[in-house]
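Chapter review: from sequence to fold.
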Amino acid sequence: MDRDELQKLTDNLKKELISIDSELSVIASKNPLVKDDFDVKVEDLGPSTEDAAQEAGELDRLQALVDTLERRRKEIVSILEKIKNGIYEK
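The token string follows.
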């Protein structure tokens, strides 16, 4: 991979990281106890059983999304670190 391709990859990864961080900030908050971990923000829809079921479904959906975004975020950070240290190989 030549220098221009590496720079283009770096730029694209940084843009993707910004996008992921933006999306995570809407649906989750950073866990202060665990580095690079996010906790899903849950909206209280009300006290009824129906509301609780809807909240549980939404929590499951959002948790799956947060898990996927966290995994991709970690991959990007790792690749950017390898590029920075000159050890990235495609």
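Two observations follow directly from the output. The chain is about 70% helix and 5% strand. Residues 3-82 form one domain.
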